[in-house]
Amino acid sequence: MKIAFIGLGAMGYPMARHLAKEHEVLVWNRTREKAERHAREHGTKLATDLAECAGAELVITMLPTSREVDLIVDELLPHLREGILWIDATSGDPNVSRETAKRLASKGVAFVDAPVTGAVVGAENATLTIMIGGTAKDFARANEILRLNGKTIIHVGDIGAGHAIKVLTNSIMGATVWITSECLLLAKQLGIDIKTALEVTNAGSGRSNASENLLPMRLRDHKWPLVFKLAHHDKDIRIATSLAHQQHASTPLLALTSQLFSAALHELGDQADYIEVAKIIAKMNGTNWD
Length: 290
Ligand code: NDP
Known about the structure:
Blueprint: E1 2-6, H1 12-19, E2 24-28, H2 32-42, E3 45-46, E4 58-61, H3 66-76, E5 85-88, H4 94-105, E6 110-113, E7 116-117, H5 119-125, E8 128-133, H6 136-146, E9 150-157, H7 161-189, H8 194-202, H9 209-220, H10 230-246, H11 252-268, H12 277-284
Parallel strand pairs: 1-2, 1-4, 2-3, 4-5, 5-6, 8-9
Antiparallel strand pairs: 7-8
Helix pairs in contact: 1-5, 3-4, 7-9, 7-10, 7-11, 7-12, 8-9, 10-11
The chain binds NADPH dihydro-nicotinamide-adenine-dinucleotide phosphate.
């Protein structure tokens, strides 16, 4: 199948590579050099311009937010072929996605939201978990393609449902990272070695992905790689908060998590990794993790 892949960032770059094993993949990226490198390294085809992507049988977007997706839809909409499928793998906003899907439907183009989880390592190893919103028929079409990227692919519900569960699951992670860091810092301040505090946490009821995988490298080994931009994580939690607001839901911890992550983003800047919020927690206590 001829697939147009738009957005070769940390996630999109390896995802497009896996698709090229079975499909003819046309790549477009805002910074053209990345698309040139992709074509050179992975046998994909460099799109001459964005408009060329409209000729594909399937379009995949992997962009920061729904806003960038909509800008691309604006440009391609007049040229898209009837009957094709648009897969948006961005962690987007379900409300925006439903509107985008309507605009695409007016041209006979089907849409699914298909955000992913599993980080860059999951994209590299094609072991992502992919959560899809759309009709059963479009889910089946998307599944046939995305099986090259993911180990677990779940049909969550109608259009927007994939984006909704994605921001909720990331909010769970954000709150867990924050409370785990707070308590580990307190343990350290009480004179407990951080290695011991982690060991006990991971052998007990405080255990989580944060305590087992995300925090030890940073807090114990003092390595702070950029894995997932704090700006993206903040965006996800803000979308979750807006969904709660829309539902008149009482979600005080979600609201607080959103406030804390936004404050951390202001302090740390656009290029910080999401786990660097732990540095802010230390700063709030007049200390550091060294
Ligand atoms: P990156 O920041 O690494 O890449 C973003 C991509 O979007 C780049 O290709 C960038 O182009 C492109 N882009 C940015 N702005 C525009 C624009 N205005 N117009 C066109 N293209 C644009 O992001 P990730 O790959 O990390 O994340 C992509 C999505 O996946 C996000 O929604 C994120 O929340 C989600 N996600 C990320 C995970 C991760 O671990 N990184 C895990 C799971 C989901 P350019 O190269 O020119 O900058």
